Task: structure prediction
Amino acid sequence: MCSTELSEGLLSILRKLKSVPDQEVRILLLGLDNAGKTTLLKQLASEDISHITPTQGFNIKSVQSQGFKLNVWDIGGQRKIRPYWRNYFENTDVLIYVIDSADRKRFEETGQELAELLDEEKLSGVPVLIFANKQDLFTASPASEIAEGLNLHTIRDRVWQIQSCSALTGEGVQDGMNWVCKNVNAKKK
Amino acid sequence: MKLKRFLLRYYPPGIILEYEKGGEMKTKSIDLLDLTPATDIDKLVEEIRRAEPLVTTSRIQQVKYLIVRLQEKLSQQDDHKFYLFKVLRAHILPLTNVAFNKSGSSFITGSYDRTCKVWDTASGEELHTLEGHRNVVYAIAFNNPYGDKIATGSFDKTCKLWSAETGKCYHTFRGHTAEIVCLSFNPQSTLVATGSMDTTAKLWDIQTGEEAVTLTGHSAEIISLSFNTTGDRIITGSFDHTVSVWDVGSGRRVNTLIGHRGEISSAQFNWDCSLIATGSMDKTCMLWNALNGKCVATLTGHEDEVLDVCFDYTGQLIATASADGTARVYSAATKKCIAKLAGHESEISKICFNAQGSRILTGSADKTARLWDSHSGQCLQVLEGHTDEIFSCAFNYEGTTVITGSKDNTCRIWR
Result:
């Protein structure tokens, strides 16, 4: 996967906002704060991940993969800015939801947020990939356990997948993105 | 017709005549765009007297005095150094655009947090939060020169009109079917124009709150719009690579400027409405005859997309900002590049002149704003402090205060 540095000026934000041509894919990266969204984004773009601070707004990167240009929007996950997630729903092709697999205390909270996202009209039918992140930590729950806890099997209105990964080491990330590229057409017809 | 009084306009240099005609008060302006401290006053006054019947022999001394004052203003040395005055942290998400009112007493900031905030420039205090939009507040404007109203355009597809004094919402303009990304009041402050990702622009009547006309014809998103100084024409720049010139009264398309080989990023009129400058992703800026829509020059040199263009107030200079990290200044007369502004370490997204035309301000993804000498291209100051890229920046009319809006959720006042 080769990445291109994407400038994020206001104008390029508008260009990323428009309904994009066939080979461009708009991916929304959501999840609770400290789930590892920005680390994942930087891992995707092959960038340095040693100094990452909580995202107050958003980050955008473009990544080339399997003939697609993936425009990935990483949106800050702190509680007070979660109501603003819907700012970014328009024209979303794939939703990636990131979970800190080692933070059991917040499984309920993250499940609730995910359920609300899946109820959003503007995201209806959008394929969803759930990254069970931080598998490098030995306290991490396995993906199967998280899938069960979140009742993922009850999702019937779209294609979905759970993928265990470590944004830190990169393990599993590529597998997840392969799934994204394979299923992007589900929405883009 | 009876002349009532003269008003002085410093930038661009001019004299406004207030006169009575048929019991009605009217104004007209004598533009002195070429005035310099060296201009021969007697010759100029004689020219004015011949061209303007309202300026009779008995008024000549008065006009001379006004021109001297304009010349004094023009010869003032500008050595203002800017220091960080305040960091405004009230927005909880990235800022989009910023704008001053004419006097510079207050300014506004739009944000991803769906609000627009009104600020007192002198104290840095928050005066109002304009709440009601359901998505990003992207485009914002004061109805300058009056400054009593504010318009906000949002990704929620609506535009709202507000009282600048009370923060009350007068109207919500509904009709666009996609994000509103640019807007402007007409100079008379009777209309608001909005440009949208739905490929149309609309003109809205401020009094009634009704849609006046829809400008239909672009085949892709409208990204930039601007009225000319008289307010009878509006231009729209689009991702369809063209710029359209519209008659404001009828909503009819008068011209289509075809020539760019990439999306348009910005389209602007010069003060006397004779020229249009357009910036494009094709790495060039083009100049067009505003009357017949013919291209008069292609300004080249940038090695990457041109992201913003602007004229100085008198229309003598054109500045371009590029994704190549440089800005350039061109002469409108010779169409030649007279200065290259090099120093930014990343793309420049916004560029503007001060009202005097002596300074250029640039805002960049390298987290800095920079101040440049318009003629020499020398970098005079680097405004450092933002922790993420700068999306927008502006001078006040006096040229003594700068505001910068950033992705780091803050606005900074420099003075």
